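Please predict the structure of the following assembly.
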Amino acid sequence: MDERTYTADAEPGDHVTVAGWVHEVRDLGGIAFLILRDKSGKIQVKFEKDEMDEELVETGLGVHRESVISVTGGVEEEERAPTGVEMLPESLDVLNEADAELPLDPSGKVDADLSTRLDNRTLDLRKKEVQAIFEIRAEVLRAVRDYFRSIGSTEINTPKIVATGTEGGTELFPITYFGEEAFMNQSPQLFKQLMVGSGLERVFEVGPIFRAEEHNTPRHLNEATMIDFESAFIDHEEAMDVCEGTLKAAYEAVEENCEAELDLLGYDDFGTPDGDFPRLTYEEAIERINATGELDEQLVYGDDLSTEAERALGDDVGGHYFITDWPSEIKPFYIQDYEDDPTTSKGFDLMHPRMELVSGGQREHRYGALVEGFEQQGLDPEQFDYYTKMFKYGMPPHAGWAYGVERLVMTMLGLENIREAVLFPRDRQRLSP
Amino acid sequence: MDERTYTADAEPGDHVTVAGWVHEVRDLGGIAFLILRDKSGKIQVKFEKDEMDEELVETGLGVHRESVISVTGGVEEEERAPTGVEMLPESLDVLNEADAELPLDPSGKVDADLSTRLDNRTLDLRKKEVQAIFEIRAEVLRAVRDYFRSIGSTEINTPKIVATGTEGGTELFPITYFGEEAFMNQSPQLFKQLMVGSGLERVFEVGPIFRAEEHNTPRHLNEATMIDFESAFIDHEEAMDVCEGTLKAAYEAVEENCEAELDLLGYDDFGTPDGDFPRLTYEEAIERINATGELDEQLVYGDDLSTEAERALGDDVGGHYFITDWPSEIKPFYIQDYEDDPTTSKGFDLMHPRMELVSGGQREHRYGALVEGFEQQGLDPEQFDYYTKMFKYGMPPHAGWAYGVERLVMTMLGLENIREAVLFPRDRQRLSP
């Protein structure tokens, strides 16, 4: 390619080559306009039929929408053009002609259902509003990683092919691994814990997780991108501080660096959270939910929170909040209980008013208690020996959490369906593209 | 946890709490020393038996090596201490006692074979030299991502569960996906190409790839972390520029930000590449290899380069270099050929003197030629319809490449085995931990 200028950088007086997609062609008779679109925006290309090379005009006006072209010419100020400038083409190359019929209209003028959009993500992502979601998603990942590094956390990658699932159970996709049965990992939980016992002490990972759950809802995925954090020598309160810190860092970064994207998505007030996230104990949460009167039946201690209960509390609180001090029996066995109250766990959830975002807690770091937990869960501790045995060789107290970037982006941008926040979602029906 | 100070931050005159692992206890009679180790370094804790609380002394000197403890006390200057300071303990908590017998000696005084080390990665990573590799690996990822962002590339995540492999073929791990056959993805190739045709134009991904290759060598893994780049509107030459840019950025960042780690690993001169990487055509490469006289048999045009051939050329060039203009028949079908010479492809490899690092090229963006390529490869284009059909709707010219972070770290640090650069490697024998 010759030196190419983004349309957004083309200034009056420049002589440039721009390349992109034919967004629209409007033929007004003596003159005609071709709108060329690239990553950065759009530019109007003006054809003056009587004054320009015939072949050039014919090529430019005959090319199908969404074809890829390259145009060279001068840039002039033009008040009536959408961006205030227009190009007068001197040459035009058709780099790849598109079919006349498209399965999806990238101009967004014709609505398409989500399934058609996901089948044609390439075209779907030519819509600036869709592109904006994924630019924001990338910015969220950048901001979260930077935050982790600012607190001395080391990035790790742990294996996705594993011999046993994190919590055993049935929600695993089986793999054939050189003749052996293996699984796709449902969480880096055990591996990140092994690493806080190493010299790294404090680690994070951003990577895929796989869950063979059969539900098919607007907020579940069978493959998601998880942000995992785990640190030695912190407790669940400090883990919540870090969690809150990453979330605020993500919102702040998006507000600061994604102004154009937020504009496109129609945000006047983006709503970066300010102030500390309230931390309600499970008991307080239940009382508040019952007090809303929104539920048909009053909750009692030990109940898990239904979607309706979460919604009622979310509306009541009105922003992000933590729920702490869960009954031990409804939290995973690897979460530590309070020493003075073994029926209450040091697990926590971070809630967005719309849904649960984060699960975390202080972990059980004592070998005996951990092995007991496996047994109570009905799991064979022998199978997890590669993990539990390290707890005999100096495992520090530690805490951590995980959240999916898709749920974060979904709640941040108010998306109706979590599939809007994934390029190529995987669910029960969807395995391709 | 109470406020904790890293050992490296403890200054004479401070009163601090440090927490970490018992690295060593030396009892000299009237006085004894406990060396406490944490992420940041080590500190000497001095016990004066006659002057200190008897229980404190007994606990401190009786605790097993690699136990996790927390010590509070004053810090004093002490020339004879390894770090120039020592602590006088006032209180000491044993947070988690280690077994007396360890499967691996984290002090590194007793050698362990790689398999034992990988079985006990938690202990293995308490060795500063091992920890250093993974701190450097994390810095490499940071630097490469920052470089990508500096050239306007958007981070993406593509699915790891797929209906068909990138190049078809047999080197795929099969999954059972809700009763359907699926595979773990061997490369984001097809997905990243779909994204350069979207509004994103220029993308990168850092994520796992899975290859069911049966070889078991010091430089192959069955699960690796791949750095993928792809961009619209660039050719193979520009793709090589970006590739070279990321590599130099990684070396520079490590040299600048990982001084302590490089010291630990014994580097006087790290060898950040300077100057442009030479770009040899395949024909030039063959001539140079033949001229070295290192090979028993002369290479002829069309031969792939054996490991010995790569070594001979690597020694001859003495640094990183590209090989371009490969015969089309030994490059994947999705690499574009020269228009004026369809037997020569726009594929390239980036070589380190020790081994191949990167594979890349300009891609075939024309629908007809792409479908023909699938057929010539013996693949059914119908199966890849989700991918090929997007080439009918305005796929721009594009190019890209991929390299594994493990090979990069391995060559950067001169590691003998690629497994040294992965926390939990996966190979034919190793599925756990």
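The mean pLDDT of chain B is 95. The domain at 122-277+319-421 of chain B is CATH 3.30.930.10 (BirA Bifunctional Protein; domain 2).
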